Amino acid sequence: MSADYILREKLETLLQGVNENYGKILTNELLSSLENTITDFNDEVLSLLNDLKENATLKDKMMEDIKAGKTEEQTSDKRSYVEETKEMSEWEKRLETLSN
Predict the structure, then answer these.
(1) Opening angle at CA 42, ends 40 and 44, nearest 5
(2) Who's near 78: CB < 8 A, 6+ residues apart?
(3) 48-67: per-residue pLDDT in tens?
(4) Residue 57: CB atoms within 10 Å
């Protein structure tokens, strides 16, 4: 049995109870909310994976620079430029507002 099948079966069981107790309108609202949550999660995971890929590329470039004998001063200029131009993700912004 796959995890997808188990999850789908469990969700159908839970939604059936919600539908019986609260009606179709609330069940549809719950489904809509779940879809939005999953979409947000997928977007955030894709963003994180892209960030990881960019960081790996930057790391590889820095390693090439080190092997080529370039100085730390030259590579730190590139690193600071990348850090300045990179925007925070929505989750990072939310976390920062919560910590202030």
Answers:
(1) 70
(2) 61
(3) 999 999 999 999 998 888 88
(4) 10
> In the chain, where are the structural domains located?
3-99
Q: How far apart are CA 26 and CA 98, in angstroms?
A: 30
Indicate whether 46 pLDDT > 90.
yes
1-32, pLDDT tens digit by residue? 677 778 778 878 877 877 778 788 887 888 88
Q: Where are the alpha helices (DSSP H) in 1-100?
A: 3-22, 24-68, 72-85, 90-99
Pairwise CA distance, residues 62 & 32, whole Å: 45
CA distance 65 to 62: 5
Quote the tokens at residue 41.
Answer: 């999660």
